[in-house]
Amino acid sequence: MNDWLFPALALLLGLLVGSFLNVVIHRTPRGENVAWPGSRCPHCGESLRWFHNIPLLSWLGLRGRCAYCAEPISMRYPLVELLNALLWGVLALKTGPGLEFFFIAATFSALLALSAIDFEYFAVPDSVNLFALVTALLAAAARAWETDTWGPLIDALRDATIAAGGLWLLAWILGKILKKEAMGGADVIVAGTMAALLGLPGFFVALFVAALLAIVPSLMAKDTMVPFVPFLAMGTLIVYLFEAPIFRALESYIYG
Ligand SMILES: [Zn+2]
């Protein structure tokens, strides 16, 4: 297979999956079924035809407005489709073809949906959150299967348990001291997903990157809440893609 063929196919598939992510982002916080019924305009409720549902192209063709009521369609729709397409293309370059790619891509897509839901609704639905954790562990299982050793899966299970358990303990202790809930169960699951993907050292670096990325928006937002899941997801992606150069830089910084 050509070097570019798999990433190009992944990009196209990512575009289609991005379209489905929009359905997940819209319906999961409302407790609706993601598979049925078909897509409707959230404003006028009119059922969309198949040609209204083509990723990116329909939004461009309709000039960002509903075909029936002309109400503007959120920029989030083309944006999520485009981001997920790029995400799948870049991840395909990183992992190469194989079973592991699909589980890794599914994990990051779930993190993208989770980020958008947290951003729009300040909610982190357990269904999408647990889906990301399961696919991250399945990616490790796929790597174990491809390399014919149990190591990657055992490492991922151990690191996810330590990260999630550690954060749960920290939240419990902080809750006792501050007499209020410091962190939700959602953060504990996200931590497990991050550690399953990155290992423990990578998990801590990703937390640090996420905190760095969140500084400016937090200062700008002042009193309003800043959703943290989008920053955790970005930190996780950055460390996943650039693990080797980041750790080389850290080593040369620490050991001179
Ligand atoms: Zn409409």
**Unreliable stretches, pLDDT < 50, 5 or more residues?**
none
**Strand-pairing-aware structural class:** mainly alpha
Mean pLDDT: 93
The global form is globular
Could you give a quick summary of the protein structure above?
The chain is mainly α and 256 residues long. It contains nine helices and no strands. The protein folds into two domains: 1-97, no CATH class; 98-256, no CATH class.
Descriptive labels:
72% helix; 256 residues; mainly alpha; 2 domains; binds zinc ion; globular
Write structural notes for this entry.
The chain is mostly helical and 256 residues long. The protein has 9 helices and no strands. The N and C termini lie far apart (42 Å). The model has no long low-confidence stretch (mean pLDDT 93).
How are the SSEs placed, and which strands pair?
Elements: H1 5-27, H2 57-61, H3 76-95, H4 99-121, H5 126-147, H6 151-178, H7 185-221, H8 229-241, H9 243-255
Helix pairs in contact: 1-3, 1-4, 3-4, 4-5, 4-8, 5-6, 5-7, 6-7, 7-8
The structure holds zinc ion.
